[in-house]
Design brief:
single chain, alpha+beta, wza like fold, Outer membrane lipoprotein wza fold like, 3 domains, 5-stranded mixed β-sheet, 4-stranded antiparallel β-sheet, 6 helices, 11 strands, about 25% strand, elongated
């Protein structure tokens, strides 16, 4: 009988340690409590266009003929651009960091912001159009989220989007996701890929350069080690333990009834 109690006690300890506690799942934990202040919030730089990015460029002018020439997907320019399913005419950035714009020619865009490209195009187009304005938008503005339960691609819905907003768009993390070891893979301007691992439970993430996500970021969150044995809460662990004890006592009672009675001499 003592062996059964010993086994049950060990099982209870294991289950308690396997519980997913708030400490493992809560974000921005502050040991100082009270009202937290974050003076060192990282200010992100504007995204710089890279090779293989896709740009939507729209020329706005009162001249209907010029508007038709520069905004038509059927214009006779070299084919560096492609029509999208949503009617956008996009220009893919070449490996040398340029695009081919209709009737203008090669324009360097890699390493520039969309605003810088807009200004450069407006200056160039004034040789063709007296009054015009240019809109430049990044079409492939997406991030990728890989977790224990999903692998999906999501649209970046605002110019400066934080890691927490990105997780909210993706439906947040599962309870078995390891928030202590979150990884972001980010392609740099030189073509190399950097990887940063950080703890979402710590407020230090706010001062990190990875607090704001960028287009083409890959957010990877693995599950806890030994996820199969994880228990959602202490009440679940207690329920499993009491059920195990009851089952053990039932088996012990059946065994005692089946054993032949010992006779005393």
């Amino acid at each position: 009988m003592k062996k059964i109690y010993t086994v049950c006690f060990i099982l209870l300890c294991i289950l308690c340690f396997s519980c997913v506690t708030p400490r493992k799942t809560h974000y921005l934990q502050d040991p100082d409590k009270g009202i937290a202040s974050y003076p060192e919030i990282y200010t992100p730089a504007d995204y710089l266009i890279q090779n293989s990015d896709e740009l939507n460029i729209r020329v706005i002018t009162l001249d209907p003929e010029s508007k038709k020439i520069f905004n038509s997907s059927t214009s006779s320019s070299s084919n560096s651009s492609s029509g999208s399913s949503k009617g956008l005419y996009t220009y893919t950035v070449y490996e040398d960091g340029t695009i081919d714009f209709p009737y203008v020619g090669t324009i360097p865009v890699a390493g520039k912001t969309t605003r810088q490209i807009k200004i450069a195009l407006e200056d160039t187009l004034r040789s063709y159009i007296k009054d015009c304005s240019v809109e430049v938008r990044l079409v492939n503005s997406y991030f990728n989220l890989l977790t224990e339960t999903k692998a999906a691609r999501y649209k970046i819905v605002k110019e400066k989007m934080t890691i927490f907003e990105a997780l909210a768009v993706g439906g947040d993390l599962g309870q078995f996701s390891d928030r202590k070891r979150v990884k972001i893979l980010r392609q740099q301007q030189n073509g190399e890929t950097s990887m940063k691992e950080f703890d979402l439970r710590s407020k230090d993430i706010i001062g990190s350069e990875f607090y704001y996500i960028q287009p083409n970021d890959i957010i990877y969150v693995k599950a806890f080690n030994g996820q199969f044995f994880r228990i959602n809460s202490f009440l679940t662990a207690l329920g499993v333990t009491t059920t195990t004890i009851s089952f053990g006592l039932l088996i012990w009672s059946i065994v005692r009834l089946c054993l032949p009675a010992t006779t005393t001499k």
